[in-house]
Amino acid sequence: MCEGEGIFEGEIWVRGDRILYVGKGEIPDDIYAEMPGKCIIWDKEIDCKKNLLMPGFKNAHTHSGMTLLRSFADDLPLDEWLNHKIFPIEAKMTAEDIYELSRLAVLEYLTSGITAVFDMYLTPKSIGEAFDNMGMRCVQVGAVNNFSQSPEMVEEMYQTLNHKSPLQSYMLGFHAEYTCSKSLLEQIAGLAHKYKAPVFTHLAETENEVAGCRKRYGMTPMAFLDGLGMFDYGGGGYHCVHMTPEDIEIMSRKGLYAVTNPGSNTKLASGIAPVTDFLKAGVKVAIGTDGPASNNCLDMFREMFLVIGLAKLREKDASAVDALEVLKMATVNGAKAMGLKDADVLEAGKLADMIMIDLNQPNMRPQNNIPKNLVYSGSKQNVVMTMVGGKILYENGVFYTNEKPEVIYQKTDSILEKLIGKIPDENT
Amino acid sequence: MCEGEGIFEGEIWVRGDRILYVGKGEIPDDIYAEMPGKCIIWDKEIDCKKNLLMPGFKNAHTHSGMTLLRSFADDLPLDEWLNHKIFPIEAKMTAEDIYELSRLAVLEYLTSGITAVFDMYLTPKSIGEAFDNMGMRCVQVGAVNNFSQSPEMVEEMYQTLNHKSPLQSYMLGFHAEYTCSKSLLEQIAGLAHKYKAPVFTHLAETENEVAGCRKRYGMTPMAFLDGLGMFDYGGGGYHCVHMTPEDIEIMSRKGLYAVTNPGSNTKLASGIAPVTDFLKAGVKVAIGTDGPASNNCLDMFREMFLVIGLAKLREKDASAVDALEVLKMATVNGAKAMGLKDADVLEAGKLADMIMIDLNQPNMRPQNNIPKNLVYSGSKQNVVMTMVGGKILYENGVFYTNEKPEVIYQKTDSILEKLIGKIPDENT
């Protein structure tokens, strides 16, 4: 079990969607005093068999609805992939399609011990409904650009989705500097000031993006956006691969989050984010999978290994970044970036968003160091329970969501047939 | 099911340790004719439920006995890690210790669909016994260097372990150029000529190693070893990270295998192997995990993603290397490098070394392209059956090996306590 950074043997009690107690198992007086009839009645008791309970992973950048495009057009140059393969299909997707495709993503998140995601995609209402339906936590972020959504829609979603369900919230955001006009960006910065709210966006993902912004405005995306007052109330960037020391200084000074997406940056050949520079400058780092078209899986274990491994490769230094630091990025830092202040650690009063890791599988033996085992050797296979808001949604390979996987697979296959065409029997 | 490169719906029949039939399910005349009483009696029939049967992964470079040192001393500079942490513990290991530690590795291999490994470590006899005991296939390779083993021992193992058990074989090899004197290397090259046999070794893993060889002999390790006649009968190198065009030309001309180990090269900050250069030059590439102290897990799915992802990063080209090519490296090429000519593909007469991949988990949906799903989204979680030599050793999370995991964990924990010391309760 985890409390802050420590691991100890004990018990966690859950009531409703919150953690009631974390400790060695003695009943505290205040809890005993309020028990009806002074006795404790449990709905369910789970023997953890010396396995690890820890906070669920926070996937701090994804586009859930892109499950349709997994393995659809890989191993192509970035421009051809995006403009000729991805965008034409996305243009045909309906809100109902994205509802089903997001539900497919939820199943996958649960198998990787992800209890909340930071989702940016096309149809916020239907995405929120999908997560509500599946019982999973979702923080959405504005995806406005010159071609879809609008500042008015972002404001409307900000006002409505933050009060719709305990599982949903919404943050200000826009797609990226390179897909938004200056006036559009000024309107988003205006919303940040109006609501004193943080803003998130794709930032410095590719060399081309940075070069384009320099050409347009004579500045890096970070410097340009900061100059608009975009980050006066915090927020941060997804990817943050091609960053200057001045960019990093701005992030440090403004308390911004760098959400790193190493799987996607690797597969799309975008580069390696300067994670060690972020850490040195005190910039908080969180981790996201990015969408399933660019990764292609939604697996925080793979991302954690990539964060630490690519940092070592980049610095040519096997001692670069410590495993425990990466574990914090994937849990505590993600929660904080996403505004989920009650989903960061396992403590009384916090949300019961937690997972159980099977320490009795061979990749977790011996137990020289459990955090290092998790980051270097851990796999989705070790996730034997995923709980969101006190409800077990996945346990020992079985989903306890409102909808069965088979039904979701059937529906997403139909969407695939409608938008892409039937998969041939020999689909190589 | 896989036959060569294709995927089709059908059946695979197994008799003894071999595949009897692969096809649509009609009984061929020659098989029918030899049936006793002209009827087929199956010991066991498995409904694959439209899941994928494919050849097991071949882990083409590992040091199984190093499981003890997983998470023991990570995030340290390479020299400190190796000389001050790893070597002192290894010096204390007995053959019996390595027997148990290798059995622990076998459990992990099975969970990742690995059906055979190419193992280089300290005590070949006890390692072979461990694999025999667990029912798993193991090709060992000589690890001789200035400090342990000898050419005589390599020759003795070559003569004995190649005839001991259908699951074991042994190839000529030595640890590395930098740990062997010139006269020792000449003796190994002599054995290669005596037996007309291929030789494998660690090769060009780090910049330092190549610089050292240049200083000693004025040549790269590849050029120097080739000049000794080391590879006149084939073989290859593990790692092969820092290779000149001339090195690659030698490999191509001699038909050598480059066994890439991206997880280890990443974690130890050694660099990115020039996989696209190998492919362009026609050098055959296989994939290995390296040992669990330097990776730290024994997971071919992670390695496959790293092979393709790091190639794209290195070339700054998202189209570098195709997923199907990587799948071949992890199966067919590995088998060929290891001399397992009958364990490469699923065909009648080949060894029944195969695995079942659950295509009904969310990371495998939709099925736009199954090979790409495997390489980009696949995980150990998808491995629901691992069969070696016709015997199911792992199915749906349960091990059917001769020894239970609990017993092996207990024994390896005792070795840890003996060699490293008791793990504190709060082992962070």
Automatic annotation (TrEMBL), chains A, B:
<keyword id="KW-0378">Hydrolase</keyword>
<dbReference type="Pfam" id="PF01979">
    <property type="entry name" value="Amidohydro_1"/>
</dbReference>
<dbReference type="InterPro" id="IPR050287">
    <property type="entry name" value="MTA/SAH_deaminase"/>
</dbReference>
<feature type="domain" description="Amidohydrolase-related">
    <location>
        <begin position="53"/>
        <end position="393"/>
    </location>
</feature>
<dbReference type="InterPro" id="IPR011059">
    <property type="entry name" value="Metal-dep_hydrolase_composite"/>
</dbReference>
<protein>
    <submittedName>
        <fullName>Amidohydrolase</fullName>
    </submittedName>
</protein>
<dbReference type="InterPro" id="IPR006680">
    <property type="entry name" value="Amidohydro-rel"/>
</dbReference>
<dbReference type="InterPro" id="IPR032466">
    <property type="entry name" value="Metal_Hydrolase"/>
</dbReference>
<dbReference type="GO" id="GO:0016810">
    <property type="term" value="F:hydrolase activity, acting on carbon-nitrogen (but not peptide) bonds"/>
</dbReference>
